[in-house]
Design goal:
Largest sheet: 7 strands, mixed
Protein name: Dimethylhistidine N-methyltransferase
Organism: Herbaspirillum frisingense
Number of helices: 10
Strand order of the largest sheet: 4-3-2-5-6-13-12
Helix content: 25-40%
CATH topology of the largest domain: Rossmann fold
Pfam families: Methyltransf_33 (PF10017)
Number of strands: 13
Number of domains: 2
Keywords: Methyltransferase, Transferase
Shape: globular
């Protein structure tokens, strides 16, 4: 799990099980990017293989559930990545340099970035997140702890744009993208995203510090996304409540179950919601029939090899990559400079 992510939007919506309500005009999917949440969600639910972008996990409850996931014994990424920062932050600071403009993509509770404040001594901290209320609550508490660091929170969906306002310092920008959030993209989308990051660096003095989950044993991976307590299942199912709020749909979470598995061919965890029975879901202007066992895709989490990481960064316009690992080499943190 990571936030937010980019899933292909606006697929062909022709499907015999999707029925228009003729009392209102049906929302039509275009071939380009859907800028409004309602249009994007309707396009995803209307696709032949239905999907909901994982960025919609993160309403207020979803953000809290994700915090709980990070404390689960099965969910190794958070602990493993944190241990890498704790063990290697001085080396990271030596590579990055102090006084950077620290731009934290998908900041959440800001804890990961805050753990590096002492080493990096940022001149400005710019947390970016799609969950507006949660972001501002997090920054208020952080500003009290670090009153000398200027903070500029940005509530935005950075999966589609990285246009930063003039309030963000242009000098020595360091994009911080922890938590293997890049894994939510497919390889081509990941490359496009990294290229957008590179274009947001005005000179070659900036860079990216990124955490990435590595390929490992299938049992370890699947347990991390389908924990015994069912917290991840609740997190996945909660997206239906959020969709109901955003587009006026009538999903009932009791009609769905959480499904997660590792697809070795594509080196990715897949998360889905599977219909427990035949059912109809309605939203203003349309409805869709889901058959028992039919799934809505909610997340991919790709896993990486070291060569995957180096190749993506090089193609995106970064070089001079430095990597740090945990003892089991389950996770990597990489710093790469713009070139």
């Amino acid at each position: 799990m990571a936030q937010p992510a980019l899933i292909p939007t606006c697929w062909d919506s022709s499907d015999s099980d999707i029925c228009a309500d003729h009392r209102q005009p049906r929302a039509e999917a275009s071939s380009g990017h859907c800028s409004q949440p309602g249009a994007e969600l309707v396009a995803g639910l209307s696709a032949r293989e239905a999907y909901i972008s994982p960025k919609y996990f993160y309403d207020a409850l979803g953000s809290k559930l994700f915090e709980a996931i990070c404390d689960l014994p099965e969910y190794y990424p958070t602990r493993t990545e944190a241990a890498i920062y704790a063990s290697h932050q001085d080396a990271m600071a030596a590579a990055v340099g102090t006084g950077c403009t620290l731009i934290d993509l998908g900041a959440g509770n800001c804890a990961k970035a805050a753990s590096l404040f002492g080493a990096l001594q940022p001149r400005q901290y710019v947390p970016v997140d799609i969950s507006t209320d949660f972001l501002h609550q997090s920054v208020q508490g952080l500003q009290r702890r670090f009153p000398d660091i200027p903070m500029q929170p940005l509530a935005m969906d950075f999966s589609s744009t990285l246009t930063l306002p003039p309030e963000v310092n242009a000098q020595q920008r360091l994009f911080f993208y922890p938590g293997s959030s890049l894994g939510n993209f497919d390889p081509q989308q990941a490359l496009a995203f990294l290229r957008r990051v590179r274009s947001a660096l005005p000179s070659e003095e900036g860079g990216i510090l990124i955490g990435l989950d590595l390929v490992k044993d299938t049992h370890v991976l699947e347990a991390a996304y389908d924990d015994a307590l069912g917290v991840t299942a609740a997190f996945n199912l909660n997206v239906l409540k959020h969709v109901n709020e955003l587009i006026g749909a009538d999903f009932n979470a009791r009609d769905w179950r959480h499904v997660a598995f590792y697809n070795a061919r594509f080196q990715r965890i897949e998360m889905h919601l599977e219909a427990r029975r035949d059912l109809i879901v309605r939203w203003p202007g349309a409805r869709r029939t889901f058959r028992q066992g039919e799934r809505i895709h909610t997340e991919y989490s790709h896993k990486f090899s070291e060569q995957d990481i180096l190749g993506l960064l090089e193609q995106a316009g970064f070089g001079g990559c430095r990597m740090w690992f945990d003892a089991r080499r389950w996770f990597a943190v990489c710093y790469a400079q713009a070139r």
